[in-house]
Amino acid sequence: MTTTKGLEGVVATQSSISSIIDDQLTYVGYRIDDLAEHSSFEEVVYLLWNLKLPTKSELDAFKADLAANMELPEAVIAHLRSYDLSTVHPMAALRTAVSLLGLYDDEADVMEEAANKRKAVRLQAKMATIVTALARIRQGKNPVGPKKELGFAANFLYMLNGEEANDIEVEAINKALVLHADHELNASTFTARVCVATLSDIYSGVTAAIGALKGPLHGGANERVMKMLTEIGEEENAIPYIKEKIANKEKIMGMGHRVYRNGDPRAKHLKRMSKELTKITGQAKWYNMSVKIEDYIKENKGLPANVDFYSASVYHSLGIDHDLFTPIFATSRVSGWLAHILEQYDNNRLIRPRAEYIGPKTQEYVAIENR
Ligand SMILES: CC(=O)SCCNC(=O)CCNC(=O)[C@H](O)C(C)(C)COP(=O)(O)OP(=O)(O)OC[C@H]1O[C@@H](n2cnc3c(N)ncnc32)[C@H](O)[C@@H]1OP(=O)(O)O
Ligand SMILES: O=C([O-])CC(=O)C(=O)O
Question: ipTM of the assembly?
């Protein structure tokens, strides 16, 4: 038996959803650069679930279906109100709320393909509502329901802020959602696939995936990037701060990637957005500081910025609370998790690797009074 720490380089499944080849990311063969420039998030979700781009009428119907499924059951809202949101992290609250949502779905354990697709729409739609409701409830405000005429990104900001966002803000969130939607067999997607490969239900798969995304080595890094930038405070402190972290063998959040060696193709889009948005808000220092850190780490450690790095200053510029950064990631990535869950069900086999045992050799049992 040979073991590979962290399963590096192990090809664990076949998939038709997204690919990373030679540092290029595609969804169903479409380049991420094209999708980021031209697509709505709904169009991308349709693509990931149906493996084809929608026609205009298919997209209109899909958008309407998502908007119609955004409302939360009253019991779920009541439950969100019962959390102590002054101490509970929104990712923990989201994980619990998605699990709870399964209790209010009559089809939760119905395994037919059509029922699974209906649940996928409900979950995708309601994730946005849960995240925004959590954000409002903890500010002592009432959740705001969706406006049926708004697209997903616009509705997200409307439900978050209680007023319609401007075009620049909607475009920024739409692009961020497109860029985060899927990423081959990342840790949270693998978690979802392992879970449902036991033929467990979609809610269990997504709940497990949220737990995996929450960690700082994965989706949780974006919040920590902003924590780091805030601690640095001013541009001139950036390099001394980073040097000290490196000397202490601490990781720089938002840097490095298991698969990309020469750069994450999503980062340049977020970098551009960060530059534009920080200029608009008069807070260019967040962008300038980020560039300094990126350049230093690239030059001294050979590590590129990943998707989490510039998303931090983008979300901050949109006035979003830092602990909502990872829930926003989840609101997008649930589309990828659901695509992979549907693909796993379609051609399922239990996922059960082996472990190389390195514990003590066979030992003689000793009765408790003799230990
Ligand atoms: C959406 C996403 O999930 S993108 C990733 C988000 N996560 C982060 O940004 C957290 C910071 N980055 C990291 O921890 C890593 O780069 C990961 C987890 C993303 C990838 O990890 P791996 O490919 O397994 O690399 P691993 O953690 O084994 O590190 C290899 C070497 O590079 C170093 N390294 C890797 N990333 C970093 C970093 N961000 N800062 C400093 N050093 C780093 C490690 O210390 C290690 O050095 P060593 O060999 O001297 O001990
Ligand atoms: O693929 C990975 O390991 C992490 C990542 O970038 C993502 O999930 O978007």
Answer: 0.98
Count of structural domains, the chain: 2
Residue numbers of the domain that contains 38: 15-215+323-346
Whether residue 269 lies in the annotated active site? no
Would you say the CB of residue 316 lies under 6 angstroms from ligand 2? no
CA nearest ligand 2 atom 2, residue: 186
CA distance 40 to 175: 8
**Residues 95 and 135: beta-carbon distance below 8 Å:** no
Residue 197 counted as domain residue: yes
Atom number in ligand 1 closest to CA 251: 40
Take atom 2 of ligand 1 and give the residue whose Cα is closest: 218
Cβ-proximal residues to 119 (8 Å cutoff; 6+ apart), any chain: 105, 107, 108, 202, 203
Q: Enter the pTM of the model.
A: 0.98
pLDDT at residue 293, as a whole number: 98
Whether 312 is in a domain gets the answer: yes
Residue 268 has pLDDT above 90, yes or no: yes
Gap from CA of 216 to ligand 2 centroid (Å): 12
**Same domain, residue pair 208 and 310:** no
Over the stretch 8-24, which tens digit does the pLDDT of each residue have?
999 999 999 999 999 99
Look at ligand 1, atom 40, and give the residue with the nearest C-alpha: 251
Query: Do 108 and 173 belong together in one domain?
Result: yes
Q: Probe ligand 1: pick from 214, 251, 307, max atoms within 8 Å of CB? A: 251
Alpha-helical runs (H) found in 51-201: 56-68, 74-82, 90-103, 113-137, 152-161, 167-180, 187-196
Do 259 and 152 sit in the same domain of this protein?
A: no
